[in-house]
Design goal:
heterodimer, A: mainly alpha, Helix Hairpins, 0% strand, B: Four Helix Bundle (Hemerythrin (Met), subunit A), 2 domains
Chain lengths: 125, 164
């Protein structure tokens, strides 16, 4: 068994996952690309484990942990995506504002208020 | 090149081709089905490497649960049947980064392992040899992971109920 073969497969899958995460707009397809990357890491773990026959199968145990964490991640991720769809009726990640609309205005007035408070305090005293 | 190497390379090619289809297709449902092919061939790869328990866990959790969950999400978000033109950004910058990451990882492994040959250990990945260390050496991480999974699922329920 030449371990370079599965390692090459894992590298290609990880690259494809990165490509998908950067390229896709649809949030569900984004999560699928993340799964590709996680599986590439799993393949690396299992292959590395196969090259260490004497030791305990730590690589496989870590693979099981990664699978469980991936299941948790996909559960929470899809809940967030569905909630997003309910709010905006779209799951296109390009159209998501990173802050609430009008956030900048309130931020400015906050700063102005704080400045007014600072100057206002001696007056009250 | 032994028979095992040829099998590993062939199944790996299927996995990479299906992975390319996942990130390249313009139909959302088909991306999910190609993901089944990709994860299934990775399970075969795990079997060939002797990791039986991991392979069957992969089939149960990924093919049985994660992909079904993804397809449910595709249905619940009313993804159109048939091609959708607006799924992707321009491929240029993303492909530069993706190919760069893949090639550098591959170079790293080529430098580290070269064309070394290893004997595959016998009976290395069955339920006994993997389950023993989990419940002796790795008991605490195992419990932490199960609490994490429980917390994530409760969190998913809370998030999808929405704010009252």
């Amino acid at each position: 068994m030449h371990p370079f073969i599965p390692y090459a497969v894992a590298s290609a899958l990880f690259g494809l996952g990165v490509l998908g995460v950067l390229r896709r707009r649809n949030a569900i397809l984004l999560l699928m690309s993340v799964e590709l990357m996680l599986n590439a890491v799993n393949l690396i773990f299992v292959t590395a484990d196969a090259t260490l026959p004497k030791a305990a199968p730590t690589g496989q145990i870590f693979t099981l942990f990664v699978i469980v964490i991936a299941a948790a991640e996909i559960g929470v991720g899809l809940a967030v995506v569905l909630q997003l769809f309910r709010l905006k009726a779209a799951i296109n990640v390009d159209e998501l504002p990173l802050a609430e609309p009008g956030d900048d205005d309130t931020g400015d007035t906050d700063v102005a208020d704080a400045a007014a408070d600072k100057t206002g305090v001696p007056d009250v005293a | 090149m032994t028979g095992l190497d040829l099998l590993l390379a062939g199944v790996g090619l299927v996995a990479v081709g299906a992975g390319w289809a996942v990130v390249a297709t313009n139909q959302v449902v088909r991306a999910g089905l190609w993901l089944v092919v990709c994860l299934g061939s990775l399970a075969v790869e795990f079997l060939l490497l002797g990791a039986e328990l991991v392979a069957w866990t992969q089939v149960l959790i990924y093919l049985g649960a994660v992909v079904v969950l993804l397809l449910f999400a595709v249905m619940l978000t009313r993804a159109p049947i048939g091609p959708s033109p607006d799924l992707d950004r321009r491929i240029g910058p993303a492909s530069v980064v993706g190919v760069g990451v893949g090639l550098s990882l591959g170079t790293l492994f080529a430098v580290a392992y070269g064309w070394t040959r290893y004997e595959l250990p016998a009976q290395h990945g069955n339920a006994e040899t993997v389950g023993g260390p989990i419940f002796t050496t790795w008991t605490l991480p195992f419990e932490v992971v199960s609490v994490l999974l429980l917390g994530a699922l409760i969190g998913a329920v809370v998030v999808s109920r929405g704010a009252k």
